[in-house]
Amino acid sequence: MESALPFVAAKAVPGIDPAAYHDPEIFRAEEERVFRHAWIFAGFTDELARPNDYLTRRVGGLDVLVQNFDGELRGFRNVCTHRFAMIHRAPRGNGMLRCGYHGWTFDRDGVPYGIPGNEANFGLDREGRCGRALTPVAVGVCGRFVFLRVAAEGPDLGDWLGVYADVLRHASEIFVRPFDERSMEWAANWKMGVESVLEVYHADLTHPTTFRKLVKGDWRCDYDGAHSRGVTGVSDKSARWWDGVSERLGFRPSPILRDYDHLHIFPNLEIGFTRGAVMSVQTYDPLGPDRCALNLRLFLADPDGDSGKGGPAARRLIEEGARDLNVALLREDQEASELAFRGCRQTGRPALLGQNEERIQQFHAVWRGMMEV
Questions:
Q1: Are residues 148 and 167 in the same domain?
Q2: What CATH number has the domain bearing residue 266?
Q3: Pick from 122, 123, 120, 184: which is nearest to 323 by CA?
């Protein structure tokens, strides 16, 4: 994907208007202009491996689903064309694309092929049934990452991801075993959550015993299209520890993601890599102008799992340590973000972004472009 304008970082750049974080009208416009037109991360192919496996998500204020039809992934609005009921109600599962209200059942093209009492009560022929097809949603796959796009027109996924598609494909080969998944609700706008991971300026005071001890503190940034990447060196102590763990337990860490490497895939997907051995995948999903859900998944570069070198007990200790560190770090970010959100509702003056917050500058530039403000 190419940006409409090249991004150039600068000193003392005003941020977006504070109302952009809390105004309900802006939030509704954001759902339409940002979330329905961007490719939104939905899950992993592992969750959709079997016929009839499905995932449901809410994207841009709309309920959507992606489902496996004999090996092919198809996406639709998750609203029955009979009388508006949600078809799949669980976040994930396995089952035919059948509405639980009256039993209308849909095929891979979204056309209702099973309508209880059709002949007696509806009389829909093939043309009539096609006229009641579900609204399609675009599905794209990069490695094991599955994305959805609500808008009918737009760039394909490869163009959208740009050079960072290679990172996702590489990560998909290394990080095949999740060991933790959780969701946390934040009393803050989703953009506050995203911004909390786009700079390390706050690390000394907000994360003195967590993230700050993990990294050296330098911050190297690059950009492609709507997205950005930040890399900082892992501290010597952390590097030795993770290298030792990988050796003792037979991990197969990434040979190229050797620092703390963070990808921001606009608008709300955040992927962090630590010493090539751990991957965190986070989304900050809007629940309203004043709330978001942080959804977190953690992976180890440990394809053999409990059958691998070192045994399950040692793995549990490593998993617990990595989980506890990530959760503690995110709780610290949550507190800072919720307080900043409280403050932004009390002023009309934008934030002032320094050169060391350049990724937030770029995030705001992309947001303004999609919002046309």
A1: no
A2: 3.90.380.10
A3: 184
Q: Is the entire prediction scored with pTM above 0.85?
A: yes
| C-alpha pair distances (Å), 189 with each of 70, 250, 294, 339 | 39, 41, 11, 11
307 and 289 share a domain? yes
- 226 shares a domain with 361: yes
C-alpha to C-alpha distance for 201 and 149, rounded to whole angstroms? 33
Q: What is the pLDDT of residues 50-79, one digit of tens each?
A: 999 999 999 999 999 999 999 999 999 999
Paired residues of 295 in beta bridges:
183, 283
In a domain, 259, yes or no: yes
Q: How confident is the model at residue 5, as a pLDDT?
A: 60
How many CA atoms within 13 Å lie on the side-chain side of 283?
18
